[in-house]
Amino acid sequence: MAKPFRHIRTAGFNISLLAIAISATPVWAEEAVERVEVIGQAASIDKALQEQKSADSIKSVVHADGVGQLPDDNAAEALQRIPGLSVERDQGEGRFVSVRGIAPDLNSVTINGTLVPAPEGDRRAVALDVLPAELVQSLSVVKSLTPDMDANSLGGTIEVESLSAFDHDGLFYTLSGEASHDTNVDKTSPKFSGAISDRFSLGEGTDNFGVAAAFSWQKRKFGSENVETGGAWDFDDGARLEEVEQRDYQITRERTGFGLNFDYQPDDYSNYYLRTLYSKFKDTETRNAAGIEFDDAQLSGERGDGEGWRELKSREDTQEIQSYVFGGERMIDLWTISGQAGYSQSTEKDPGGIAGAKFVGDFTGIGFDGTRKPHLVAGGAFYDPTAFELDEVEWEKVSGKDKEKNIRLDLARDYDLAGNAAQVKFGGKLSRRDKTSDTEVWVYDDFTGVGLDGLQSGSVDYSLGRFGNGISAGAIKNLIGGLDRSQFYDEENSRINDFDMREDINAAYLMNTLDVDDWRFIAGLRYEGTEFEAKGTGLRDGVYEDSQSRNRYDHWLPGLHARYQLSPSTAIRAAWTNSVVRPTFGQLAPGFAIDGADASFGNPDLKPLESMNLDLGIEHYMGRAGVVSGFLFYKDIDNFIYNTDLAGSGEWIGFDEALTFDNGSSAKLYGVELAYSQKFDWLPAPWNGLLLGANLTLSQSDASIEGQGAKRSIDLPNQSDTVGNFMLGWEDERFNLRLAANYKSSYLYEIGAVEDKRHDLYVDDQVFVDIKAGYFITPELQLTLEAQNITDESYYVYTGSRRYNAQYEEYGPTYKIGLTLTHF
Asked: Where do the TonB-dependent receptor plug domain residues begin and end (predicted)?
């Protein structure tokens, strides 16, 4: 018979996965009730709220439940349960996280206290779908930074903590198997995961050394269907469309993750740890496309002439994250000394694949119907492979690496100040980051007389209209395999996108904590000095040039936190903080291309974003697993960055186009966060098993941009005015159920032109609804059933107005069945 749980480390504000055990026999039932109290959802919430209540900063957490499971498949989707957080999705799956309307690139992610670099070559944002949920013990979002924390986030710092043996008493293990069925591609995919931890006695100590390991493997087959215009609308003469394209995606996504952690606590005054994590994310993608570019822009319902195309993209993209952290803490009298050394590395590799194999042909009597979800209209010739001739094949190979090394030391001393408990803390951190990107491109052309016939694959299963046959990746590879690739090397695109960037940050801080009656104050100052260097290649009217840039800047960042305990169950919090965020690597890219009167380039001289942040809120705790809270927040952001066209100004005065990035003067963001959760255990059965959780964030933003002699105000990109989460759960001694809904209102995705907001791109609002049920067959064996995206929510990007498509994509629901064996 399984032992009941004795101890679990907890953290968090939001709602964890329902996990309950009960019995089919009276003996089992007695034990299961005890387990329910320890690992049930209400217990998880209650322990999480205790950490929130005692935290010095404004902090929210999603914590793994008693069986070592986060409530979602990956870290990004688990974080969407937190107030103020929304998720950017890729192919229907949560990927990047936005905090309080701040774009993902302007937030930071740490694993076990060390920065996580970004696998993507041009971004700072970490794609959190790279991290399987099984490797994560807790996910925290700190929204008001204290001076001892890195100041490199505007919305919040996402802290990932992996499993420790001291999260459980004694031997713990869990094994899970799952099958998921994607309705879009009608495929079933496997997943396996597990974790184990135990403590051992070293020397004269008892259970003072812990080892924990976790693994996860998933191979998921899924897809999506898409129709898009790219925003190619001409609004000067009605709403005329220049081109339209249909796309079908078939993807196999394989995730592999492994973590191994060691903890040593030789006495009550010291602890040491080694945390390791490895995660691999591999996408094998086939995309068939069919589209038309009209000779003259057309209205919906019109028919005319144009060039049609069919195109194949077939690639393999692998992203890896490695993280190693060694640290410890030692108390000596009134002093506490702690330190940590960390190394993390992210890589992205595409060993070589078809970036585009395009066949073209001329057609008459073609057009489209509808503006929101355009339906391509063409005669039979468009579906005849002999009407298409191979135009070119683009082959691309990509590799990128982002490495970060850091070391920090912190010293704290407790002391008495006029009869009040106080602590002074100071320390420093050195961080060294190196990011490289290398792209090689080959463009094969001159395929005179090579038609689509004989290079086809089977019919494409596409529900948004008629599509026809796809293109065979194997046939294309065979076709170009015998050619001399050196004759088709694209030097321009292979050189100007490459870069090597180094970013060194030296930081130091001083802070003091003071408790006066029911008040706690934290005041401090942080210094961060940054040295930046970028190397790359530019192309100026056919001549290549080395491009190199250096920049240095210093920031002094004061902060003040206050917490007042109105009563044992009610606290008021306030914070004034300052933060600094460096531009993305894509914005800083040193490469450029200048051809006559047209230019495009990055801007290594961009200033970092600086933000002054104010937070004020109240929390009231209501018995078991109950809380209601409200927070106001305000951010005043300087040096806001946006894409622009500098043609006609400064050194670009004689140019028709000069596309780059520039600093705006300022941007403001303000809003309110409301949250509520409660277990209704005082109600009569069966209502005493009811749990309810909800949060709502309302925000507004304003930023000013200029270019091409024009100036206007915009919302911050990626900022949704309304973000909300709702959870309704129920649990008894044997069965658990959770219904979860996530809502995100529309937001600005990309600025079209400063002088013409009609071509700005917006992502439409979305509501994702999931339901999950669990049933304990035995005290240690649980069966789970889950349905994701049960409302079949789509992804829609529009051009200026919701009437005009830029991209429409459908994914369909996903259904899962799983079995989890757990031993405490």
From this structure: 53-157
